[in-house]
Amino acid sequence: MRKIDFTILIPAIFLVVMGTSQIISYTSGRMLLAHFAALGGGFAGMFIFSLTKYKVFIRFRAITLYVLGILLLLAVLSFGRTVRGSCSWLNIGIVVFQPSELVKFTTIIFLTYYFSRNYIDRGSPRTVFFTVLFGALPFALVLKQPDVGTAMVFLFIIFVFLYFSQNINFLMFLVISGGIVLIEIIYFCLYPAGTWSLYLAGAAFFAVLYLLMRFLLRIKKAHVLVLSLGSLFVLSLLFSWKVTSMLKPYQKNRILNFIKPSRDTLNSGYHLSQSLITIGSGKLTGKGYRMGSQARLGFLPGKYTDFIFASIAEEFGFLGVLLILISYFVLYLRIIKISMLAIDQQGTFLTLAIFAILFFQTVLNIGMTLGIMPITGLPLPFVSYGGTALVVYLSMLGIVMNVGATAEGW
Amino acid sequence: MWYKDRGWDLFIKYIKFARFILILSFTLILSRVFQIQVFKGYRFSKKSQENYLKKFIIAPKRGNMVSSDGEILATTYVSYNLVSQSPPTDSILEELSSITGVPVKKMKQNICEAQRKKEILVTLANDLKGRPLIAVASRIDEYPDLRIIKAPKRFYPYEKIFSHVTGYLGEPTKSEISEMPYSYTGSLHGQSGIEKTYDKYLFGKAGGEIVEVTASGNIVEVKGSVPPSSGDEVRLTVDSRLQRAAFEAFNGRPGAAIALNPKTGAIRLLVSSPGFKPSVFVDRSEEVARLMTAPEIPLVNRAIQMKYPPGSAFKIITSAAALSEGCIKTDTQFECDGIFEYADREFKCWKEQGHGIMDFMQGFANSCNIYFYNVGLKTGGENLSKYAKMMGLDLNVFEDISGELESTIPGPAWKKKKLKRGWWNGDSINMAIGQGFLWVTPMQMALVVSGLATRGVIYKPYIVEKVISAENDIEYASKPEIAREYKLSDRTFELLKKAMRKTVLEGTGRILDIKDYEIYGKTGTAQNPNGEDHGWFVSYGGGALSDFCLVVVVEHGGMGSVSAGPIARIVWDEYIKIKADAGQEKVNEKN
């Protein structure tokens, strides 16, 4: 039993209980039963993984799991069930589940395997290329469903492993170009017909840059530098133009609403404004369990799924929210601590990647309900309704426990 | 332990940076939650209450109006409206349309309006009755969002006949709302007549319900309610039989009739023809627009809101002035040969061949213009103006129905001020027969006549007897008030009375010569440049009928004796009948 890490277990149980308190209020019958089944499965998974030697598991299962995951994603695209416009559910007779959640786990296991094997060559173009390729495969398949939120998680997984490659220049380039592309996408959403003014502004900028470099800094080959930067800029423009044109109107609206929240409080901004009312009206101590009028009477959308944080905030107030945030904080700090204690690269990479996935979704989800992040439709780990995610995330904690226990000599 | 590896020293910085990001994000999230829940919590909890607590107003039952003979002139009944908690689909609308007969277009208009006003319930069909009501009620369970709700609805049993007495309802303007603390969004209030002046008594007090609703507008539970209280009953002095007789006698011709009790000022009938149906304003039908623009101006209450030249009816005042001031005596004679020439102008008598030589009584009874031209010349504009005002033509004291117009009484001072010209004798000649610049309402003439009946005491006219609350308390009771008291010698009153009696017995007013009854009258035929003459008939009773005086005007009706006379006769006959019936009942009671 020493392998059970209570610094992980107790916060996880608290978060699950808080989520269940809302799920009990709003679901019943098969749905509620599925939740409790997933709870059981999740804690069983946690237990099993905490006892499984992760080194052996990764060495012998990583490739199989990855291939299985990709096959599942392909299966979902061919036989999947479509719910609310995205085909992400697979029925295998006994259970209906979301392969994309499972594939998050298999992908980081496989990337950990691949990356730790090539740790010596971590900065080489070959390693970077394959890391991106192995991450891009599930990303593309999930985007095809289409599930943009989950696809973004895979994008983030790729970034995490590139982060592990410790190439600071490359990371800077990624972050800056990512930022530029993001600004361009927002620009295209705001001004769908404004491409020409952007080209003109870009041309003017590079002209001034060239003149500055050539005549002020007296760089002889300034034209080469400016031309390559300019073509990169044009490429990024074409890329973000393509991405923007692929976005659905509601997705563009979400981006615009995030920029200007007061833009449309009745239609697409409705979710956000109701979420803020729900959280705010909880005040310090909350309205009391099962007394949340906003969620109970249907003003809050996704009251036990994407916006469950708001439901909890309404009924338990700031004090309840504080406890939730403390739980997440303690949990994530512990995972980071374990990643530092791990006895090998695999342990460190695996726990850090698990932290990254959970943390990314937590911040995006809570930030979305608070209006400081755009609405993405990502669930809140351990709290939101969703069986596959619950099983997968609890199992992830199990593997983290095993890494920690191994470090302590078990 | 791989941190003994070469890469570890570098890698630990990356892990620490990740931890830094974690701490930064959670600090940010925590401060944002603190801001929303603690700083702005009060504001957001108010917003959440606005979200789910909605106030419904329960309309009160508007009070009845009852005539002096106990007839209900305006009442409120329970109507059944079909409402929906959410806009129904087109197919449901079409089904409902076929059941209720309300066009789909009309329902869609209602839906749009309800959405604009952010109302929870959409009214699809108003005032369902009979077969459609039963059909909808029997199938209501098939449509979970639909409900049938009860709503009070105003009903006017006499419609046109009492339209100018009852008035009509409508939505008040913004400035009117500020004076009505009891009103609420969409409440209907009086726009004219008693409905307007007695609105605060009739309206009652609205009740309300606070309900908890879901986001889609379904009612979860009623949190609290206050029942509405009904409006007061207003009892009027008008008699429905007289009113009906008079209104029907007009037969749609434009004009007005007023009868009142000279001893109290109680109005017994007040007719303005043509009337309108007050219920069209409740239904908001397309008829409203027509009424607003119709050339016969049916919404104008001609009894108080229309001025006419009094014509020969004014000769009563001319006579009173001349006799009191000693300008003529009863035996003063003038000759009428049909035309009267004065200062190069010709003034005609209505009888072209002339009346011959006449004294005062003959001149009055035959309404000879030339006799009165001479009287006017002798009396002068100053006196005519003074007596017209003194005898009540300048009164503006009727308060029960708003909108009464002021009369125009010319005189030397008036003309100098208004027209910047001097008064000349021709003006006196014109004024003596009630023409020229003289304009009065039927109400003002009725007051003059009532003053004659009481020998100089004019009571303030009123139409509301009392106001009785639902608990049977008397909220308001009118009492006779003297509006004007003036002195003329008994001899003058006697002479005027004789002259008006002679008019009825031998002159232009013979239509009111009713056996056994004493009625005094005067006709008038007021010329006007815009068409046919207006016909007047003013009269009051003596003896058993001394509590009744009557003024009838028929717009563009021609000679007063021919147009207004028959109407006056019908009303007097009706009044005599009512009196006789009441007397018979008393006799029966005694036996």
Topology, please?
The complex is a heterodimer of chains A (410) and B (591).
Chain A: H1 6-26, H2 29-51, H3 54-79, E1 81-83, E2 86-91, E3 96-97, H4 99-117, H5 125-143, H6 148-164, H7 168-190, H8 195-216, H9 222-246, H10 249-259, H11 270-281, H12 293-296, H13 308-341, H14 345-370, H15 387-407
Antiparallel strand pairs in A: 1-2, 2-3
Helix pairs in contact in A: 1-13, 2-15, 3-4, 3-5, 4-5, 4-6, 4-14, 4-15, 5-6, 6-14, 7-9, 8-9, 11-13, 13-14, 13-15, 14-15
Chain B: H1 8-39, H2 41-52, E1 53-58, E2 65-66, E3 72-84, H3 90-100, H4 104-116, E4 122-128, H5 130-139, E5 146-155, H6 163-166, E6 169-170, H7 174-178, E7 189-190, H8 193-197, H9 199-202, E8 207-213, E9 219-226, E10 233-236, H10 240-250, E11 255-260, E12 267-273, H11 279-283, H12 287-293, H13 302-305, H14 315-324, E13 334-336, E14 339-342, E15 345-348, E16 356-358, H15 360-365, H16 369-379, H17 381-393, H18 412-419, H19 425-432, H20 442-453, E17 457-459, E18 464-468, E19 474-477, E20 482-485, H21 490-505, E21 519-526, E22 534-541, E23 549-554, H22 560-590
Parallel strand pairs in B: 2-10
Antiparallel strand pairs in B: 1-8, 2-3, 3-4, 3-5, 6-7, 8-9, 10-18, 11-12, 11-23, 13-16, 14-15, 17-20, 18-19, 21-22, 22-23
Structure description:
The complex is a heterodimer of chains A (410) and B (591). Chain A has helices at 6-26, 29-51, 54-79, 99-117, 125-143, 148-164, 168-190, 195-216, 222-246, 249-259, 270-281, 293-296, 308-341, 345-370, 387-407; strands at 81-83, 86-91, 96-97. Chain A has 410 residues and is an all-alpha fold. In chain A, helix 1 runs antiparallel to helix 13 and helix 13 packs antiparallel against helix 14 (345-370). Chain A is globular. The model of chain A has no long low-confidence stretch (mean pLDDT 89). Helix content of chain B is 40%, strand content 21%. In chain B, the strands form 7 sheets. In chain B, strands 2, 3, 4, 5, 10, 18 and 19 form a 7-stranded mixed β-sheet that branches. A 5-stranded antiparallel β-sheet of chain B has the order 12-11-23-22-21, with helices on both faces. Chain B has a 3-stranded antiparallel β-sheet with strand order 1-8-9. Chain B starts with 7 loop residues before the first helix and ends with a helix. The mean pLDDT of chain B is 89. The interface between A and B is large, with 48 and 41 residues.
